[in-house]
Hints:
Blueprint: H1 2-32, H2 36-46, E1 53-59, E2 65-71, E3 76-80, H3 91-98, E4 103-107, H4 124-137, E5 143-148, H5 150-162, E6 167-173, H6 192-215, H7 230-242, H8 245-257, H9 261-266, E7 271-276, H10 288-294, E8 298-303, H11 310-313, H12 315-327
Parallel strand pairs: 3-4, 3-5, 5-6, 6-7, 7-8
Antiparallel strand pairs: 1-2, 2-4
Amino acid sequence: MANQDDGSINQKRRHVLAATGSAAALPLAWMSSITPAQAAAGAQSGKKEVGPLTTGTVRTKDGVEIFYKDWGSGTPIVFSHGWPLSSDDWDTQLMFFVQQGFRVVAHDRRGHGRSSQVGTGHDMDHYADDLAAVVNHLDLKGAIHVGHSTGGGEVVRYLARHGQSRAAKAVLIAAVPPLMVKSPSNPGGLPKEVFDGIQKQVATNRAQFYRDLPSGPFYGFNRAGAKPQEGIIQNWWRQGMMGGAKAHYDGVVAFSQTDFTADLKKITLPVLVQHGDDDQIVPYADSGPLSAKLLKNGTLKTYKGYPHGMPTTHADVINADILAFIKG
C-alpha cells in the first residue's frame, strides 16, 4: 500500500514539474514576441508614479451600492461605461491616463457589474444621480467626464441635472444623445421595433445575445477583412453577464427613448464629441453631429470606418485625442 502511494505521489510530482516547465516557457515565448519599441514603452510607463489605487462603494439616497474604482492622483477623469457593461470596459483608458498623471475614477452603473442588482431606478435620472453620488462622495472638482454610448447619455443628463460646478470638460464617445428612437421629431432614428427586439433577447437568452453582439456589429468584427479578437469578445460577454437582466432590460428603454435635446442645450463647458462613421449600434448621422450642433461649446471629431466599440479597438487614437483635448 505504501509503495503504491509513493508511486502515485511521484507520478503527480512529475506532472506538476512538467506543467511548471511549460508554464515557465510561456513568459519566454511571450517576451520574444515583444518589439524593442514595445519594451521601451513598457519600461517608460513602469517609471511613472500612479498614486494610490483603491476601490470602494457609495450608497445612494435610495439605498443602492455603487461600486467604483479610484486610482491615481491629479486632475480627475470620470468614466461612465456603456450598456450592458461595467467599469472594466475602461481598462485601457484607466491605465493610460493614470500613467499620464491623472486621477481616474470609474463606476459600475446600478444593476451592472459589482453594483447592487436592484429592480428599479434604471433610467437616466437615476443614472445621473448615482454618478453625482460618486462625484460628491469623492469630492471631485474640476473633473473631466468621459462617457461611452449609454454612458454618454449619463454624462449629459448629469451635467444638465446636477450642474457643471464640479466639472471642467466632457467627452462623448459614440454616445446615444440626442435621441436614438425614431419619432416625429427624430425621423432619422431607429424604429422602436429594433429596441423591442433587443429587450426580447435580453429577457429570453441574453447569454447568447451577449456573445453575438460583440462578435459582430459592436466592434465591427462582422465587416469584410475584420479580424475578431476572442479575448475582447469574451470580456464583453463576461461584463454583460455580471449585471442583472432586469437592469439591462429596463436600460434599453433608458438609452433608446430618452431625449437629451434640452440637456445638451444647457451644457456650456467644452465638450469633445467622438464618433465613428461606421457605428452600427448608435448610427453616426443621427447622433454625434446632432449633439455637437446642440452643444454651446461642442467639437465633433469623426473617425472614418471606426466601430461603436472604438475605445477598445482603436484605444491608441481615442486616448491620444482625449489627452490632447484635456490639455488644450
